[in-house]
Every structure is written in C-alpha cells, then in structure tokens.
Amino acid sequence: MTHTKSRLLLLGGTTESLALAEQLAQKPAEHPGLTVITSLAGRTVAHRLPPGEIRVGGFGGAAGLAAYLESAAIDLVVDATHPFAATISRNAALACNSAGVPRLQLLRPAWERVTGDLWHGVPDIDAAAKALPAAGQTVFLAVGRQELARFAGSPGLRLIARMIDPPDDNRADNSGANRCGSFSGFEIILARGPFGEADEEALFKSAHVDMIVSKNSGGDATYAKIAAARRLGIPVLMIDRPAPEPGDNAATVDAALAWISAQLSLATANTAASQPRNLTAR
C-alpha cells in the first residue's frame, strides 16, 4: 500500500508534547510518511529539545497560524500546549477551522482534591490576586513568570516565585539554581525541576510559607508541591482551568498517537480512493 506523506504541527512546550514527539520518532514504521514539526513559544531555555523539526516563536494570532498551515502544507495539528495556554489553543482552533486542518487537543487531566487538601478554588488569576491579602502572609506563587504582574503590590505580603530562567533585568546576577534575589517586589528562586515532595517540604518550611497559589495544571511533573502542601497543612488557592476548545481531545499520549494513526489511515484511504483505476479489457 502506498502511504500518503503528511506533515504534523505539534504545538508543544509540555511534558506530553515531548513524549509524543519522542514516541513518533521512535516508531516511524507505525506512522509512515509523517513529518513532525514542533512549535515552541521560546519563553524559556529548553532543557530538552524534541526530535524532528523545530520552530520557535509565535505565529501572529489565528490569521498568522492559518497562513502558516497553508504555507507549510500542514495536514494535522496537535495542540499539546499547557492547559492554561488559552490564547494559543483558541488561535489553533480558529486557524484549523479556517484552513480545514484536523486538530487534536492533548490535555492532561486536572488534579482532583483528596482527603487532607486545603484547597480554595478560584476561577482565574485575577480572583486569586484579589483573595490573597486575606489569605496568607508568606505566599508561594506557582503561576508562571508571565502572571507575576497580577500579584504585584499585594499589601503586607511576602511573595515568593520560582522560575527556570532569571527575569531579564536579573540575568547578569544569576549563577545557578536556588539563588534568590529581589525582582519587582518578589523573591525569585531560580531552579529547574522536577522537584520531589521532600524538596518542596523543605522549601516551604525554610521560607515559612503559609499559602500557595497554584494553577490546576494536572500531571505528575509539578504535583509534588500540592502533596507537600497537604502534608504540611498549607492552604492552596487553586486556580481553575480555562474551558478547553471544542473538538477532538485526548487525555494521554497514547490516545493522541491513536488519533494520529486514525487520521493517517483515513488520509491514505482517501488518497487510494481518488486514484484512477487501471482497468484491462477482457
């Protein structure tokens, strides 16, 4: 059977996107004719790059992404961005609908509250920032560097944030992980995970953290802080996820692989059906 050559755009930056790219690279015979292009936002220095082609940077909104899909001859899109990357997911949905390109959203399940968790649910970042002054004194912000400005100026609070790369105005002072410095009213911890539960407990104890603000990112990679908070009896302001985009979705890498295989099989079948039949007269 002749297989159709296909091009997959993988919107990445997550553990799942890396795992998906690696699985596709390790088993090319299961996805014949497939070229994978991983798109990374480029906000942090990548610890481990996925196999295959890589592009870095934005697309210029939904219209720009739609234009890229056409110019790069993209046949499939898998949106494996962070569960809180609502803008790129919305743009991907709009662009794929416009270009007629099949799209899958690979979205890991959210964390579920278990016995002992002291969660206070809030709908978004702004609600978390408004709730803070009455919630704690020393606050660990697990919200990502792009969201820190929402918490600036919180009265009477000691705000601690951890990030992989130093803020732009602090790069010259960075010499490695676990170095703290002041940045716009925040105490910044520079470190790259994964972090174990014992590590998180030690940090929270030494810093006298009495409140944690966290996005409900789901997955295992960053769950240690939630488990540590439960063990130490620290309340967590848990920020709800934005609603996912309508359309095909998968909760696991295996399910995403199955979707890709099904799409490739469908494309191959459609190509075969459109080929002229060579009939020999009897």
Brief write-up:
By secondary structure, this protein is an alpha/beta fold.
What does this entry look like structurally?
The strands form two sheets. A seven-stranded mixed beta sheet has the order 6-12-11-7-8-10-9. A six-stranded parallel beta sheet has the order 3-2-1-4-5-13, with helices on both faces. The radius of gyration is 22 Å and the shape is elongated. It starts with 5 loop residues before the first strand and ends in an 8-residue tail after the last helix. It has seven helices and 13 strands. The protein has helices at 15-26, 61-71, 86-99, 125-131, 197-207, 224-232, 253-274, and strands at residues 6-11, 34-40, 53-56, 76-79, 103-106, 119-122, 138-142, 158-163, 179-183, 186-190, 211-215, 236-239, 248-250. The chain folds into two domains: 6-109 and 242-274, Glycogen Phosphorylase B (Rossmann fold, 3-Layer(aba) Sandwich), CATH 3.40.50; 119-239, Rossmann fold. With 282 residues, the protein is of the alpha/beta class. Helix 1 (15-26) packs across helix 7, helix 2 crosses helix 3 (86-99) and helix 5 crosses helix 6. Residues 169-182 have low confidence and may be disordered.
Explain the layout of strands and helices.
Layout lengths: L5 E6 L3 H12 L7 E7 L12 E4 L4 H11 L4 E4 L6 H14 L3 E4 L12 E4 L2 H7 L6 E5 L15 E6 L15 E5 L2 E5 L6 H11 L3 E5 L8 H9 L3 E4 L8 E3 L2 H22 L8
Parallel strand pairs: 1-2, 1-4, 2-3, 4-5, 5-13, 6-12, 7-8, 7-11, 8-10, 11-12
Antiparallel strand pairs: 9-10
